[in-house]
Amino acid sequence: MGSPVKSWWCMAVLLSLYLLVTGSGEEKETFIVQVEHEAMPSIFPTHRHWYESSLADTSSIIHTYQTVFHGFSARLSPAEAQKLQSLSHVISLIPEQVRHLHTTRSPHFLGLNTADRAGLLKETDFGSDLVIGVIDTGISPESQSFNDRDLGLPPPNWKGQCIAGEHFPSTSCNRKLIGARYFCAGYEATNGKMNNTLEYRSPRDSDGHGTHTASIAAGRYVYPASIMGYAKGMASGMAPKARLAVYKVCWNAGCYDSDILAAFDAAVADGVDVISLSVGGVVVPYHLDVIAVGAFGASEAGVFVSASAGNGGPGGLTVTNVAPWVTTVGAGTIDRDFPADVVLGNGKVIAGVSVYGGPGLTPGRMYPLVYAGSDGYSSSLCLEGSLEPNSVKGKIVVCDRGVNLRAQKGQVVKNAGGVGMILINGPFDGEGLVADCHVLPATSVGAAGGDVIRRYISLGSQLRSPPTATIIFKGTRVGIRPAPKVASFSARGPNPESGEILKPDVIAPGLNILAAWPTTVPPSALPSDRRRSEFNILSGTSMACPHVSGLAALLKAAHPDWTPAAIRSALVTTAYTLDISGGGPLLDESTNNVSSVFDYGAGHVLPDKAMDPGLIYDISTYDYVDFLCNSNYSAHSIRVITRMAAADCSGAKRAGHAANLNYPSLSAVFHQSPNGHPNNISTHFIRTVTNVGDPNSVYKVTISPPPATHVTVQPTTLAFRRLGQKLNFLVRLQTLAVQLSPGTSTVKTGSISWSDAKHTVTSPLLLTIHQPL
């Protein structure tokens, strides 16, 4: 699972291949161009003037960057890109990626109770002096979740702005929403001027995603809150008094790297303390990943970066945003759901979920039931125009999940005259259920329940006994057990780029989360939907990420001197891996089997424990450089990521291997020799812990070794005499090689815990044995 050799030569080859593919024509593409910042000749008044001197068309420049990155983005022809690459002051050209969004009760579920006299919220004044930067689709500023009642002036180090735009006057900002910017130049460079009838050229949110994530991170207390009568209660974000700065980068066509990097650059210069990013794309080496590059600059400036793991689960190797300086967040369930069960004509009941709030089906009446994939029907997916009205009118239609939006399938059924819809998971989705705000009576059921429904329909057709069904909507149910589970859609490890770094780091609530919503956007996000609501229920690692962003703001408020790595360490080493009823290990929602560290990382976040973790694993910028050296990144590639002119890898290579990064989890990857001869496999980890608990404390180690593995820790006791004291320990691991088929791997997991009777500091320990092809 180790990284391939990464070098300037590799970068040049990639660019050359790109230019070869695009041909010799003049079709332009966007590149992010890194330059040697200090090399600007004195004759130029600004760096932009210098950049323009290198281009034939000065209007091709999209953004300039000067905080987390030095350089500019521009639309370039293949010839222009080749010319720029040859200039001595140009360090790197990175082709632009287009990214996509990873799409009331969670504070209570996390134990953030306002009644506690000494909890994380009270200890930090609800995060009032911290600023969370949300890079997303913008914000709906009039939402009550963003009111500034009883808030003082913004923090004195705040330098940001409130940029006015379409339907977003400068008065949209207040003492809660203290900054708002939008970045669309990269989007428009590729797609042309945006359609102002569909999108706002301003920080205003025309999608809803950004409003939702911002309120999860830092929404104020709002009561009553609900969506169509569901999830009634008090809504609040993780850090209700934290200030918000929004950076709109996502548009109808996606989120463009050049705009994302501009948002990182602005957010750090503005003075945010935390960046929340629920956006992701394809995993590439870090020096070609603009999010990784921007996040490194932010981390170096002391800004904590939380990013969504992605929604590619439950399959493995799907996790995104995997750089070790980013805290990567997967999604878990909470103890609330919205049951909407299917009752079949034969009396069988199939469990489902929904937040449909319109006119219901007639109580006690059974409706004809039809599967859209049966013979004579053109699409089981209920795509636009695929249903024959004469075949579905007055019936409940069964549709398969996939391709088009879930709520959109309901609109297709409704347009064709159907009275209801049952949405069935495919085998890949398993039993994970997502509640949607449908436009007609509809529910979602798992793959197993879907098979029962399809068999019933098929048998009824054979026996000439027309199948019937109805849907019973049961509202909101609280106290679900077991909880949490790993949400079925949550992206899973192992880390595709750095097997020595466990990703995701943690999971947080991400399924069926109630949060603020623009009243200009239908809750189903369908243009035909005329309903409006101030709140909506969404699911995704997009929702999990801002939970951790808000918690990071609270931890930063409690410990102003903590680095981003220290905050991540506190969250990781105090996370839990048992359901809240204590009945057993975390389960995988898609299968209801026991989940693994590749599903949940270190476990589910536990805020109050994270406030007082006892020990932390801290990481410096130079530690990350050593990690990159030991991951076989070249000096040039490291310069692209870190902006360090000369990265010396000689010392790092002598110091050990990539798994020696002082990460709060421990992961080793072994590649067996192709001949497959069994022999002992061994490695070691060096870690440094910093005392942030009691000044005089003694920690003793507890080892839970992976199966058939011998693990030792030296020393077995760590005695601290003051706060801030650092002590080292060494972990040795030895196991036997195993017989594996070529191209396959096996994973063994365990843990190491340090305890002083008051604190327990736990790190996952895993080893992966891979048999090459």
Automatic annotation (TrEMBL):
GO terms for biological process, alphabetical: proteolysis; response to symbiotic bacterium; response to symbiotic fungus; system development
Compartments, record wording: Secreted, Extracellular space, Apoplast
Primary location: secreted
Lineage: superkingdom: Eukaryota
Gene Ontology molecular function: any one: serine-type endopeptidase activity
UniProt domain Inhibitor I9: residue ranges: 30-102
SUPFAM superfamilies to which the protein is assigned, alphabetical: PA domain, Subtilisin-like
Keywords assigned: Apoplast, Glycoprotein, Hydrolase, Protease, Secreted, Serine protease, Signal
Subtilisin-like protease fibronectin type-III domain: residues covered: 660-766
Residue intervals of the PA domain: 367-451
Signal peptide annotation: 1-25
Gene3D superfamilies, alphabetized: 2.60.40.2310, 3.50.30.30, Peptidase S8 propeptide/proteinase inhibitor I9, Peptidase S8/S53 domain
One Pfam entry name: PA
Active site: D136 (charge relay system), H209 (charge relay system), S542 (charge relay system)
Domain (Peptidase S8/S53): residue spans on this chain: 127-589
Family (UniProt): Belongs to the peptidase S8 family.
Listed name of the protein: Subtilisin-like protease SBT1.5
Protein species of origin: Flemingia macrophylla
